[in-house]
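Why do we care about 3D structure at all? Because function follows from shape, and shape follows, mostly, from sequence. That is the central idea of this module. The next example makes it concrete: a single protein chain, its amino acid sequence, and then its structure expressed as tokens.
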Amino acid sequence: MKDKPREFSASAPGKVNLHLGVGEARRDGYHELVTVFQAVERREAVRLLVSPALETVSAGSVVEGMSTFYGVAEPGEDIDGPANLAWRAVDAVVEEYRRQYPRAAVELPRVKVVVEKNVFVAGGMAGGSADAAAALVAANDYVGAYGHAPLGEDALGRLARSLGADVPFCLAGGTALGTGRGDELVEMMARGRYHWVFVNPRVGLPTGEAFSLLDDLRHDNPALVAHLDTAALARALLTGEPEALAPALHNDLEPAAVRMRPQLRPLLEQAAELGLRAFVSGSGPTVAVLCRDEEHAAQVLAELAQRFPGYEAFFTAGPAPGAHAL
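And the structure:
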């Protein structure tokens, strides 16, 4: 084993929901979704480190996790324990490997998981899901290097779905239609490149509460119907023109997010004045702003940073490729 690699690394993209239509609640507690994802070039990186000291233990799992933060704020709570999605993804790959090769007499050295975070934590951009997707790829290289063979794409896809509804898309990247929980994916044709500004007001917004509030709001306001038709958005994506895409963007969860966090309203209003369109990303609280091009995005970012000091913000572009080894 001394000549084997000592580090296994991969990255995966954050995402924005170009369309998020929320249907009825399901028996499993999730809502039926029709969503269009676009991966963006703001990537999370995961490194699995094997040290000589760890190689004496053959449990084949994680001994420690550590997150580092680049251009995004560190959360107040500890996110580096066994509940971390990257940690869970590594364990899932190892468990699946041992299930597929129960007779393989292979010692897997334990690893330290280092997550390099570039996406807002709990911001509605699937940062944690990107960590999981990157960790799946890195862990698959890890078991392949020390064991019998890496897992196949079908196995990785199944593990991705078990880890979270957004993980399969972070694994795939690009632009895709998601149905069911959002994890049943079909690739969508998208021409052109789209430039985005993302602004995080740094206020917690629990996803489950946002969905529950939307149900309550719909009970009182029949006009808040589910938007489950993505045909207009699909046509706009074929043009490759951000001006055509802007009016087709939609998020059913936005009214609930704004009701829960009223500070989103002035941010949305002013961002809409500066960009082509502004809307809540996913379940929030991050606001996504579509811009004409990179220069426009830089201008919008500078202006919003001045108007909303203390908020986190960056600009990037999409679509971006899915998870891959580094």
